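# step 3/5: fold
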Amino acid sequence: MAFDITTVLQNTVTFTSQPNNHGIYSLSLTLENQDIAGDYLFDAIKAYASENNISLKEDIRNSYLKVYLKHSYASGELTKDDLDTADYTAQVALKDLHQAQEGSEKYEPITISGLPANARFKCAFELVLNGELQGEFLLAPSSEMQLGGSNVAEPENVVLSITETAKSVEVKVSNVSAEDNTHFLLEVVDDTKSAMPEVPYEQSVVFSGEFEFQADSEPTFMFTVGENNMRSYVNYSVHLRTIEKVDNAPNSASASVKVDAQSFELPWLAGFVDTTVIKGKQIEDALVSKIATKLTANKDARKALRTALNSGAYSLVASQMYDLTRDVAVEEFESAKDTFNEVRTKLRRIALYSDIDPDYSEVLDLSGSTGDAEFDTYDVFMFVTKQGFTNGIETRYFTWLGKAFYLGPIVEGGVISDKKFQVSVRGDVYRDRAELIFS
């Protein structure tokens, strides 16, 4: 029998709302116990789990209260079908559901951020335990909330140009309009985090900057690794909001609009080749063959090397060979760039989820092709990660992003797959001489 949330909580919700400096609203919802003398929701759920011999996972990925917000355009209560098209959702870990203060029947507020000004919502709640929805009911499906501020039109006619330099990305706004408003907000969103319902909106936005757009202006933003908490190997999307400014009153912001097909990643290929392949001593026979082919086919490359050899300065020879190796390797890995991103995205998601649920794992199929007969998905994984060793012996541990990924075996048809694994995170990693030691 499913746990009935309505036996603990009242079927109503109170709310408060607050804008930030840009006019983006946060909505705080407060739930209330039916009986002040009764257990709070988390305590009641733990008792239920104990009575039914359920091993309760308390992390936000497995057990949580889910909140739905849907723009309120009609009378009546929200239905189950409405939840599939909800405008905003949030998940609250069970352990965060507790009294607002001693002796209170109210809970700590649940906050949903990133909302447009002047929006009117209806809300509903559902309970999930160990990944299972508890019952077919909704809590508070008729509660209606009106946010402050003015109704603001979303940006239209957006034209962006995204240009990659050696180490940075330039985002230029060439055109945008929204009725009579000229003030806008550009947001850069981490796509991996935004795709995870457990991550709140504000944690997926890594940069936000206001600008004013006029016919003769093209506001420009520069993004570099290490600035604004931005990182290599992450896919970022560009979003825009309209900002309405009113004297002696808070700003009002529109909903956030993702600019279609306008995403980017910070330049990584040349640095990856230099650090991981060349300095990391992961040069394969195929790469050596292509370097030789480049020397044979490229007159300028041969001339530069001959000049260095004739100078007698072997440091110059080494420099020429280093540059040639790097250039050829960059060409080599360019063809597999999308596969690198796919592997990294999967590993990063596993790493992020492992911080929420230590038992989280995913199947990673590395049997795919990159379009290069000499360079498949497994090769990409081996270049992206670094294999761990214990007493000089290879292990099933690989490190990336400071995490120790364990490649568990998968059996198919009675045979252990050689390129398909159950991947989980088994902790953090540090280096001791040439070996990787896992904590």
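# step 4/5: annotate
The longest helix spans residues 314-334.
# step 5/5: archive (pending)
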